[in-house]
Structure formats: C-alpha cells, structure tokens
Amino acid sequence: MAHFNYQEVLPKLMTPEVMNALSGIHEYRGKQDVYATLMPSTMDKLCEIAKIQSTKASNEIENIRTTDERLHQLMAQKTEPRNRDEREILGYRYVLDVIHDRYRHITVSSGVLLQLHRDFYRYLNVSHAGQWKDSDNVIAQLSDSGEKIIRFIPTSAVATPHAINDLCAAYNAAIEEGLYDPLLIAALFSFDFMSIHPFLDGNGRMSRLLALLALYKNNYDIGKYISFEQEIEKTKVSYYESLLASSEGWKEGRNDYLPFVTYFLGVISACYRMLSERVGVTAKAQTNEDRIKAYFVGLIGQATKREIVQAHPQMSARTVERILQRLQAEGIVEKVGAARSTAYRATGKAAFENSSDLTAE
Predict the structure, then answer these.
(1) Among 23, 24, 21, which Cα is nearest to 265's?
(2) Which of 131, 201, 209, 306 is deepest in the core (most CB within 10 A)?
(3) DSSP assignment string, 24-64
(4) Last residue of a domain, one of 253, 278, 303
(5) Mind listing the pLDDT tens digit for each residue in 143-199?
C-alpha cells in the first residue's frame, strides 16, 4: 500500500518550472484581491456563472449531462430533476454550494469525506452513498475496438479506510508545518485521492470538489470566480495524461508527482489569467461597446451569445445583444450558424480598428 510521505515528496517538486508557476499565480492572486475590493458586484456575478460552469463541466467529464436550459433551471432550483443524470447534477451543485459557503469550517478528515460523498448522492437512493467501496475497482478505458484496457489498479477495498486516514493526516501535517506552498499540497492530495479511488462511484467529481476545498481553505479561491472544473474539462486529454504519467509506481512509492502537479498549476494559472482578462478589460475599457470589441479582438474562434454574456457579467443580456447588432452593422463582428448553433466571431476589421489600442497597452 502507498504511503504519503509529503515531507520527502515536496522538496523534489521545487523545480524552476514549478517555482515560476507559483510566482505567477501569487502575482495574479494579488490582483484578485484588488478586483474583489473595487468591483464586488462584478465578482458576485462571476461567482454565480462559475457555479453553473463548474457543475456542468465536472459532470460532463464523466458523461453526465442535461441541456443548458435544464441546467440553469436546476441550478436556480426552479424545477425538479427528471432522470438520474439530473439528480447527480443536483447533488454536485449541493456539495459545491456547501464548499463555497462553509469551507472555513470544513476539516479534511475521513469522516468529512464520507459526509460530502453522502450529500453528493442526496437526490439518489443508492446504497454506496457515504460509504467506502466494498469491492476492488480499476481505472480503465475502452479502446477503439471496444476492448476494456486497465490503466491503473487503485487501493484495495480492505485497505481504503486506512489509506484515507493516512492521506488526510499527511495533508494536514504538511499544511500545519507551513514549509511549502499549499497549492502543491492540494495537488498531491487531489492526485492521491484519485489514486486510492475510495468510492464505488463519484471519485473523479469528488476529487475536483476536494481540490476546490483545499484551495479555498488556503486562500486560493479563484475557483469561485472562474470555473476550475471547466478548465479541466477543456484540457481533459492532458488531465488524463498527467494522471497516468504520475501514477506509474504509485503503489510502491516511487512515482513522479511532477506531471500532475505541473498540470494542476497550469489549470490554476489559466483560471487566474482568465479572471484578469475578464475583469481587466472591464476596468480599462471606457464603454460597454469597447469591452465587447476588446473581447472579440482576443477571441480565438467564435463564441455564442451566452458565452459572451458570461464573459461580461457587468452587462445585461439585452445590452450585449444590442451591442452585437451594432457591431454586425459596422462589419466588426459577423454571425455564423443559425438557431441554437448561432455564434459570433470577429472580422479582420475588428483587429484593425483595435490594433492601436492594443499596442498602447
């Protein structure tokens, strides 16, 4: 069984790449504090948007889905779930709300992990809710031919309770010692939890919720405003590759945590950059139209109206719609697709008109 000797692992993670990533994240975190003070209403709107995106993305990674319309109704508690997927989505939302609202009072312990898992399934009648797995499981994937390929064999069912106790003790000891950045400890904790795979179901989603909990408790609450889970969903190929790379030799205690830690820090950095872009444009631009123009200049590809509204929480949907109509009339933005697949993208004129401003900044 694996042992969690973080005092031995953490010094090995102090590579130039990791140190540079941590330095950049600390700089972004300072800016976030300023945003929260100067633009509280914008940050509140971003928080509500991030909850929806996080719930959608973390469940979609596990192929649990509903329509966007149903998702928004469920998140607003304006409808009842229609099927198992929607009940699991509601459970995720519930635990996410608990973490958002009460993280300061939530301890990292085996009892709390069981309670969160029980709450995760509060809308489903399943016997394994809030229970450690009672049979061994494997992490596998299907090949193109449909063949099941085993990628990793987690901790056995009989050893799981002891492993979780050891993991929580290692995490708490490393945090209390205070020698290393809590971001690194959160990454190790998230990875080792996934490697134990302590539940019959819900391990991936629980690992992402617990990562948020560890981040919030250590004053890295970027996931409140920019969806940590959505960034993972966008890069899930790299996510799984990093898990696989760091899992080799895990049971024997000779695995290399660096691939997953590097990926984890990259996700955090991307979230902070996105927050800086969204709120920074809001702070610099003089008008709502300037903000939308700047958004399209930096946009790669196209975006739906919902995505544009979500990126500009200080504006109403109607305001965004009026601006899009004007920018289309001016030839700065063009519409692509139709009906539900309608999206918008910048024309060459958008980049030309904004190039002088971008150079000045």
Answers:
(1) 21
(2) 209
(3) HHHHHHHHHHHHHHH-HHHHHHHHHHHHHHHHHHHHHHTT-
(4) 278
(5) 667 777 888 999 999 999 999 999 999 999 999 999 999 999 999 999 999 999 999
Domain that holds residue 160: 6-278
Contact of 110 with 210, CB cutoff 8 Å? no
Residues 338 and 293 in one domain: yes
Looking at 244, 278, 312, the residue that finishes a domain is: 278
Amino acid type, 135: S
Q: How many residues does the chain have?
A: 361
| CATH code where residue 324 lies | 1.10.10.10
CA separation for the pair 237, 250 (Å, rounded)? 21
**Which amino acid does the sequence have at 17?**
E
Whether the pTM exceeds 0.90: the reply is no
Cβ atoms 137, 200 nearer than 8 A: yes
Residue that is written with structure tokens 């609202």 in the block: 101
Domains: count for the chain? 2
- 61, 232 Cβ separation under 8 angstroms: yes
Query: Are 298 and 228 members of one domain?
Result: no
Contact assessment for residue 9 and residue 257, using Cβ atoms and an 8 Å cutoff:
yes
Burial class (CB in 10 A: 0-12, 13-18, 19+), 216: buried
Alpha-carbon distance of 214 to 271, in angstroms, equals 16
Determine the pLDDT at residue 102. 96
Closest CA to 112 of 100, 90, 95: 95
Q: Is the dihedral of CA 129, 54, 148, 138 positive or negative?
A: negative
298 and 347 in a common domain: yes
Angle at 59 (CA atoms; ends 129, 304), nearest 5 degrees: 160
